[in-house]
Amino acid sequence: MSQKDVLLYEKTGKIGRVIINRPKARNAFNQELVENLGEFIKLADQDPDTNVIVISAVGDKAFSAGFDIKESIGEPIVDVIPRRENTAMELNTWREVWKCKKPVIASVQGFCIGGGLHLAFMCDLIIASEDARFGEPEVAFSYVPDILIEPWKLPMNKARQLLYLGEYLTAEELRECGVVNKVVPFEKLEEETMKIAGRLAEMPSDTMMMLKYQVNKTYEIQGMVNAMDFAAEIFSLCRINQAQTQKEFNEIVNSQGLKAALDWKNNHNS
Fold it and tell me: How far is Cα 235 from Cα 190, in angstroms, rounded to an integer?
């Protein structure tokens, strides 16, 4: 696939739309998508004709199923310097959302997992369909998040529940936690997202940029950026350790798929 295939950029009035376009893979993040996502977000932020950004995904099954595990396990980066460089690239991609001068809305349907959850959580607002499910299942295959946004968005024990147990939370549960701003039927998701984006687009743009900077700085003063840098270092160590200690699991992923590997792991541990 070319860059234009896995990501799209469209404009609707004063709204710039970054669209993830791997529906057959449930919009999983392969290396090409991650490497180019930051550039698409910057394109939307620098577009002089737009005042607000919407990040969405094609299809009805998933906003994103997270990182393409088969790709990352099949081609692991385990040398220290390249591993840290790759992790920094991923971290910087998510931070492009945070650094946007314009407000960013995530429009989420279906599964929103791992990297997909990180992308959505970095946005200023989240509009989700009733069928949306948010999860961090990485612990099941011996990974940790590369950007630890959850403690900044969720109450402490809810963040631990999501991370430790690999459970999925519904859009309504996250709305009750104050993370998801609005839950709507799937068939209304685009309409409601664009309605809210339209309201933001008509706000005084310079004032909105200064307001976002003001809010972001409040969290940065509390240590958010440093905490993410530390999380990225632990992620790099975990990736190296996983490749070295989970060889049989990784071989099953490559030959039979992730589900078969998880079934093997559950039977092996029982």
Answer: 34
The pLDDT tens digits of the residues spanning 188-242 come to 999 999 999 999 999 999 999 999 999 999 999 999 999 999 999 999 999 888 8
Fold of 5-267: 2-enoyl-CoA Hydratase; Chain A, domain 1 (3.90.226)
Domain boundaries, the chain: 5-267
Mark the ranges of the chain whose per-residue pLDDT is less than 50. 1-3
**Residue 174: both structure tokens together:** 């996250």
pLDDT of residue 5: 87
Residue with tokens 């631990």: 160
Contact present, 235 and 144 (Cβ < 8 Å): yes
pTM: 0.91
